[in-house]
Amino acid sequence: MRTSTKLNKFHIFILVIAGVVLSVGSSSTEAKPYVLTCEPEWRSLVQVIGGDRVKVDSATTAQQDPHFIRAKPSLIAKARRADLLVCSGAGLESGWLPLLLERASKQIQPGQVGYLIAAEHVPLIEIPELVDRSQGDVHPEGNPHVHLDPANVELIAKLVAERLSKIDPGSSEQYQKNLEIFKNRWKTSQVKWLQLAKPLNRKNVVAFHKSFSYLFRFLNIQVIGYIEKKPGIAPSASHLATVVDTVRSGAVLGVVRTPFDPSDSSEWLSQKTGKPSVILPFTVGGAPGVSDLFLLYEYSIKALLDLLPQS
Amino acid sequence: MFYKRFLTNTLLVGVLGVGSIAYADDEENISQLRQELEEIKAIYDEKIRELEMRLEAAEEGQVARQEPVDLGGRTVRDNTFNPSIGLILNGAYREFSSGTSEVAGFAVGEDGERDAGGLGTEHTEFNFSANVDDKFFGSTTFAIAEHGGTTEVELEEAYLSALPGAGLPDGMGIKFGRALWAIGYLNEQHAHTDDFADRPLPYRVFMDHSYNDDGLQFTQLLPTGDLFTEIGGGVFKGQDFPFGSSAGTGIGAHSYFVRTGGDIGLTQTWRVGAYRLSGETGPSGRISNETNLTFVGDVDFDVFDLRYTWAPTGNERDQEVTFTAEHFSRDESGTYADGENSISATDYTGSASGWYSQLTYKFNPRMRVGARYGELEISAPPSGLSGSLVDSSGHKPTSISLMADWTNSEFSRIRLQYNKEELTAGAVDHQWMLQYVMSLGAHGAHKY
Prior knowledge:
The complex is a heterodimer of chains A (311) and B (448).
Chain A: H1 2-25, E1 34-37, H2 40-50, E2 55-58, H3 73-81, E3 84-87, H4 97-103, E4 115-117, H5 150-167, H6 172-196, E5 204-207, H7 213-219, E6 222-226, H8 237-249, E7 252-257, H9 263-273, E8 277-279, H10 293-305
Helix pairs in contact in A: 2-5, 3-4, 5-6, 6-10, 8-9
Chain B: H1 2-22, H2 27-59, E1 84-96, H3 109-112, E2 118-131, E3 136-147, E4 150-162, E5 172-178, H4 201-207, E6 214-221, E7 228-236, E8 253-264, E9 268-280, E10 286-288, E11 293-310, E12 320-338, E13 343-364, E14 367-378, E15 398-409, E16 412-424, E17 427-441
Antiparallel strand pairs in B: 1-2, 1-17, 2-3, 3-4, 4-5, 5-6, 6-7, 7-8, 8-9, 9-11, 10-11, 11-12, 12-13, 13-14, 14-15, 15-16, 16-17
Helix pairs in contact in B: 1-2
């Protein structure tokens, strides 16, 4: 009969899926708190505070622009079982995080202990006075790339320890201990970085996007031009021409970008003006060997120092 | 403070070191070095003071917040609770070589056929959405559209869904109202996010572009680790294509579905699903083809979908390949009446199927190209209906599409498309379309 053959096809499909689900699903029972972070820098921070007491995944890799990923099925599955969510916020993830939260567990909903958005706890810079889409894909709340200011990282570290302690009181002591160790090392490192970066004081660079604003403020480096005319809008030829003029007229060290910014315009500008171009890691994993937040800052400063003219 | 001690030590070591070398040099050099050291010290002091202040402020929670700007006079605070408002402008120029676009054997009438020719502001879509309170989310989308020379307001979606605060078990979702229900990949997407300027052929004939009946749907995410697995089902009034003119009471249609998806490495993502929608048309039936064709009876509708995306660098904004394929089959049993050929209600049992697949390639952040192929087939009707509108005389309607589009930002897109359709035997229709899609205001995230 016609209908019975059709039913079979449909039911075989469902059986196959049920088989896959059972074989995968049966292995996923863990007692450790599960943390989902939006960006790799927060995964690294949670690993430092949580150690082997937590399991942590990042929604994006260092090679991905966190503005523009999709709410993929795998991310929905991860958000569903997360105990803690750690993200930058300030609109950075607005293209996909709301869709994850719609399907996510109760404990990571806004206002809950498991919902930790960095931008809601640290002072933001570059808050635009005029918000209009003709200005590009602006963030009305301010610049979301807050992890490149060491003071912000320290503050979020404290919050991560607090939240983990509430979620998993049994390991609270361990989290606090890890936090203290991190804070001490982080403070010493900041002085070291400032000493290392002294030759960069008040130097000028050109950047692709406002990705490094917090880092440049920390190091007292000035950005005198952006390759992106407006955030989220690819540069036009006429705008690139004005950037060439900017680079030529000012004492510019070089052109900086993240691993996920397109290379062509930066390289073109570098060739045209004879100024070096450099990829800063931007986050943990953004360059070979950059495996934690300490190495992220150290690598970035050294890469910037390499831009200084050799005398 | 820790910093101060560290700094003093460092400076001491520095001064001693520099001092011993400088001993042999003249006094001028020494004072120059002292001066430099003072400068360094000043810079460090300033930086460290700033750091400490910021740390203290942050630790005490005195986070600097932008004060609301005083505009003078009345302070408006009510609009904080306004819903997100989005507006989609969608218009096109379409040119067709053939005067008709009847689909052999399907006779769906103007609704399911190609869009109107010439210049047109086709779909102006408004969306309002917001959390109602801690338990409910509400959203409505309506479109002002041109159909056959008249302007109509279409209610595309008006639903509420339960928020995670509503106390449902983890992973469960409920949607109530009118919505683009989970029946195949494209049905859940708003038309303005489509990769082509028109819906694929099967969507046009089987669902009149989309199935957005009134109803209730529940979904449940299963705890399957990193693998996405969802089951769900719904009950519907049964008045939207492929059903029609519901009895007015009770449940006219129901659905159930299962789908699963995941990643392959860091750059590839996939999802597959199977959906079934069953129901009956109600006593006055489904009326199509400008009121000429009436079907009364039961409909079983199955859809299988596959979605695969590959972004070589992990950034779909820069480069991406997407592949979508869906297969549809419909079984009908009941009666067909054909007014055009003066055939009164005649018993009918038959099946129809169709599929399409499409490939798009984004080769830089602004440019994409794509190709699509769609095909339909309907079984030969019983003898009483031969020669009627449901008789395709063995012809398989086909449609080939090629498109290229340009995206300035996330919010604007302009598209050029060519279609070659052979919907009735021997009638080849060459179609050219130039379309724009602009998105103003709040713009919700798009589903995978």
